[in-house]
C-alpha cells in the first residue's frame, strides 16, 4: 500500500510539473509551485527526484518516452516509407489540435538551460537527433542517396520545428500539413536528381 502511494505521489508530481513547466517555463516555476499543485510535501518531491533539476530531467525523460511511443505507433501503422514519413507530420497535426498543446518542451528546456545544465540540454538534443535519424532512414528508403539524405533530413526537421512554432505562436493548427507539402516538393526534387544521376 505504501509503495503504491509512493508511486502515485511520483506520478502526481510529474503531472503537475509538466503542466506548470509548459505554462510558465522551467525557471519561473519553483519547487513550492510544484508541491502545491501536486498536493505533496517538499520532502516527498526531494525523496523522488533529489532536486528541481532532477525533476526536470525526469520530466524530459518521461516526455521523450511518450513522444517516441506515440510516433512509433503512428509510423508502424503504415508500411510504405512515404506514408511512414508522412505519419510523423500527421502525428504533429493531431498534437497541435489537442487543448493541452503548449509548444515544444524540449526547445524550452534548451533555451533556458543552454550552457548551464549539460544533462538537461543533452536530453533535449537527443530527442531531436533521434527524430532526425528516423527521417533520414525513411528518405533513404524512398531512394534518396546517402550523400544527400542527411541534409534533406535536416531540412525536413527544420520544417517540422517551424510548424511547431507556427502552431504555438500563431495558432496555425494546419502548420504540419503545410510543412508536409514542402517536404513532398523537396522529396520529388531529390528523387528526380537521383534518377538523373543514375541515368548518366
Description:
- This protein is mostly helical and 200 residues long.
- The chain has nine helices and no strands.
- The chain has helices spanning 2-24, 31-38, 42-49, 52-76, 81-96, 105-113, 118-141, 146-169, 175-198.
- It starts with a helix and ends with a helix.
- The mean pLDDT is 91.
Offer a few descriptive terms.
single chain; 200 residues; mainly alpha; 9 helices
Write the SSE topology.
Blueprint: H1 2-24, H2 31-38, H3 42-49, H4 52-76, H5 81-96, H6 105-113, H7 118-141, H8 146-169, H9 175-198
Helix pairs in contact: 1-2, 3-4, 4-5, 4-7, 5-7, 5-9, 6-7, 7-8, 8-9
Mean pLDDT: 91
Find the count of extended strands (DSSP E, 2+ residues): 0
Cα separation of the termini? 72 Å
Low-pLDDT segments, ≥5 res: none
State the shape: elongated
Helix content range of the residues, please? over 70%
Brief sketch in words of this structure:
The protein is mostly helical. The protein contains nine helices and no strands.
